[in-house]
Structures are given as structure tokens and as C-alpha cells.
Amino acid sequence: MYRFLLSWRWAALALLAALLVPAMVELGFWQFHRHQARVARNELIAQSLTAAPVPFDSVSKPGYAVPKDLTWRTMSATGQYDGGHEFVVRKRTEPGGSSIGYFVITPLKLADGNGSVLVNRGWVDSGEDATSYPAVPAAPTGQVTVTGRLRADETRESSGINVRGKLPDRQFHLISSTQQAELTGAPVLGGYLELAASTPAQGDSPILLEEPDHSSIGPHMAYAVQWWLFACLVPVGLVVLARREARSPAAAEPEPELVTV
């Protein structure tokens, strides 16, 4: 009744199933690991955002590379803005919107003399054309204390984009403390601060960036379960197909005998 299982067609189907099942199981674990990484990232961001601020220069120094476990850590810095070395970063999306504009980066000279911190003061709309410097609200004068989120320098290695290229004056593609230190000759602490609040409060200012999403876990767990279900369905499908073929009239017919001359 089931002698057809010995045919080449069924041997090929069994081989295909033997290849598909472990591949689907592995794909399921890949999505599961992505789910775990997303959950761990969310927990790290939540802990970083709710932690008490620590002085920026207690963590960073010139040339410092911000590690992943400190990214988004709440930081503070006190000093005076250096508007003469302010610059903008091109092709950045409006917070909560879709318009393309600029991030405004203003160095903050620390009151304790330990160098400068690049502060991302927020987003502004594009200028009249790609070569014009946009209208940027002036940074507050006098001493200020800023708090915000620690971010790592943007690099060519991580983005594939040149820091500057052939751009107009005071316009850049990336936020890089190393590049700014080379251009200005001033000590700039590694990483930068994504502004969240300022004391005294800012008046007219760029649009502040929103906190990173740390509540969504994405579809990875659902995809993992989906792949594992597919892996279970492959052998079930083979059994169903074999039973149907066994009940078919063709399976009941005797096989033709081999005639030799």
C-alpha cells in the first residue's frame, strides 16, 4: 500500500523536508534571539533614562568611545555655550514628523575647565537651499546646566558616510567629537549630549529630540513562533500527503512488471 514511498519522488520530498525542518527551527531561534536583544535594549534604555544624572566629564574625556551599555545614560554638564563653533548636521528627520532638516550642535565649554561637550540642541527646518545655513535660534548666554542623553560619536565606519565631504561652512554629515577637536584645536570630550532640559530654561530654541522608544518589542517573537510552527507542519504535511496518495486509485493498481526480451 505504501510502496510508493520508495519512489524517487518521495525520496526527494523526504530529503527536502529533512533540509527544511532544521532550517526553519534555526530561523525561529534567530528571531527569538533578536527578540531577546530588543528586550535587553529596552531595559537598558529604561534604566539609563531613569538614572540620576552624572557629570559628563566624570565619564568621558577627549577621544573617549562611548560603550553600548552607557548609551542613553542621563548626563549633566555646566558651562557656557560656544556659539562661535556651533554647526549643523544635515539630513535629519524632524522629531515625530517626516520633514528633513538639521540637528543643531553647540559646544558647551565646561565651567571646571575640563574641555567642551558637544550638545545636540535639537532640530531645525532646512534653509532656503542646500547651501544656505538654516535659521538657528541662538544658544542661551551665560552659565547654563544642561541634562540629556549620552550618545556615541557618529563615525564613517558605522555609517558609511563621510564626516564632512564637500559641504558649505559649518555643515556636516555626522556628529563627531574627534573631528570637531581637530578643526577647532580645543579639547572636546568623546561622545555628545542629546539635550533634554536646560537650567535656566531656554527660550526660543530648536525642537528637542524625543526619548528613544523603549516599549515596543517588535514582531520578532511572533516570527519565531511562526517559523517553529512551519517546522512542525512540514512532517505533518508529508504524512497527510502520503495517506492521500495511499487512498488514491493509482496507489491500488499493481505496478507493471519489467519485461525482458
TL;DR?
The chain has five helices and eight strands, in the order αββββββαβαβαα.
Summarize the structure in words.
The chain has a 5-stranded mixed β-barrel with strand order 2-4-5-8-6. A hairpin with a 6-residue loop joins strand 3 and strand 4. Helix 1 packs antiparallel against helix 4. It has 2 domains: 76 residues; 149 residues, no CATH class. The chain is α/β, with parallel strands linked by helices and 261 residues long. The two termini are 29 Å apart.
* Strand content range: 15-25%
Query: Uncertain spans, ≥5 residues at pLDDT below 50?
Result: none
Total beta strands: 8
Q: Compute the separation of the termini in Å.
A: 29 Å
| Portion in helices | 25-40%
Total domain count: 2
- The helix/strand series, from N terminus to C terminus, equals HEEEEEEHEHEHH
Shape: elongated
Strand order of the largest sheet: 2-4-5-8-6
Q: Tell me the Rg in angstroms.
A: 30 Å
The helix count comes to 5
The largest sheet is:
5 strands, mixed, barrel
User: What structural class do the secondary elements suggest?
Assistant: alpha/beta
Average pLDDT for all residues:
86
